[in-house]
Amino acid sequence: MGETRRERPVRQAVSAGGVVYRRDGSNIEVVLVMRHEGDGWVLPKGTAEAGETLEQTALREVQEETGLEVEIVDAVGEDRYSFEPRRERVRVNKVVHHYLMEPRGGDFGLHDHEYQAVDWFDINEAPRLLAFGSQGLILEQAAHLIAARPQVGGQR
Rounded to whole angstroms, how far apart are CA atoms 133 and 75? Predict the structure, then answer.
């Protein structure tokens, strides 16, 4: 009889990040980041440091990864998934809390070196570029929230 595959131990992980958006008339753009490995575009996110709230983590991680100073304007939702890291014998169940954010300053040139590129993309085209389909659902939820928000004159 064949050997049964042993279940890997499970580790829980929590991250937070955001959908940073801007409007130009009826066009809406969102920020995506690309890792150096070139494995596709993703929404900025990261893991909490000791003592941080989810909101504080989201603000810090988005600023570090994009170079932008941002403000949270709403909660978007959660992205839940599991994966097995290459060098570990464990299964990770991860929850990522996403927030809708507006830029208040900063510059892409200030992003950390974890990413090779940061850029704006049309919200309707961005889902096709994403490395993970579940983030497309987050963008869809964000689009509904953005549509419901009052448009401030000349936001860009």
Answer: 19
